[in-house]
Amino acid sequence: MHAFNRHPIADTIREYFAQANARATAGQTNADGESFVPPVDTFSTDNAYVLHVALPGCSKEDVGVHWDADKGSVNVAGVVYRPGDETFVQGLVTGERRIGMFERTISLPPAGASEKEEIDGFNISARMENGLLIVTVPKVEKEWTEIRKVDID
Fold this sequence. Notes:
By secondary structure, the protein is α+β, with helices and mostly antiparallel strands.
């Protein structure tokens, strides 16, 4: 393995993986903990989409959930604080948790969903449970499909 480290192509491979890692973590956490993008699991049930947003250490008072009908998206934004007073925080030896401001936008319905599915934006609900924000986005099935003639200029 030591011989490989001295091989001319080793630097190229290391640079490739460093760039790939930078792309994969872009927007997640700045070095100083200013902002991050929380991970989300999206589930589809018969009646709703259920979003699980991982927000360990976040209280429900510090997070907001908004539905944008024009864009067809749920936006989750807020802040995670490091607990403790200033003196306690100054004694931080390692900081691996994501803290600071966060934002995540999820488009619904997701690509590939049935064209007959729409979102019931008036009945979206959310709750915090053990560091997990659970957002339930009800589905509504369209009873008809709008077909409209488009004039050609």
